[in-house]
Amino acid sequence: MRQDEKRRIRNKGVKSAIRTAAKKVVTASEKKDTAAAKEALLEMIKRIDTAAGKGIVKKNTAARKKSRMQILVNRLGA
């Protein structure tokens, strides 16, 4: 139970960081700032891949989140 609690707290921090990074991508895309959106997207992808590799987030969930954010950023270039 003690291990579970430590892991839960650690995982909570990682998931929070992913949500924060995703919010930065959305905010930059709403402002039509392509450069900032691409930079934020790279940071978010890095955090999601790390979490997926450690099993904090499932692989398909990670792929889905990355795909949706990539579509959002790609729309700015069009």
What does this structure look like?
This protein is mainly alpha-helical and 78 residues long. The chain has a single domain (2-77), classed as Methane Monooxygenase Hydroxylase, Chain G, domain 1, CATH 1.20.58. The chain has helices at residues 2-30, 34-54, 59-77. Helix 1 runs parallel beside helix 3 and helix 2 (34-54) packs antiparallel against helix 3. 22% of the residues are buried.
Write the layout of secondary structure elements.
Elements: H1 2-30, H2 34-54, H3 59-77
What's the short version?
By secondary structure, the protein is an all-alpha fold.
CATH class: Mainly Alpha
Low-confidence stretches: none
Radius of gyration: 14 Å
Going by helix content, strand content and strand pairing, the class is mainly alpha
Q: How is the CATH topology named?
A: Methane Monooxygenase Hydroxylase, Chain G, domain 1
Any idea what the CATH superfamily is called? Answer: Ribosomal protein S20
Mean pLDDT: 96
Our measurement of the CA-to-CA distance between the termini, rounded to an integer number of angstroms, reads 51 Å
Give the total of beta strands.
Answer: 0
Structure characteristics:
single chain, Methane Monooxygenase Hydroxylase, Chain G, domain 1, 3 helices, elongated
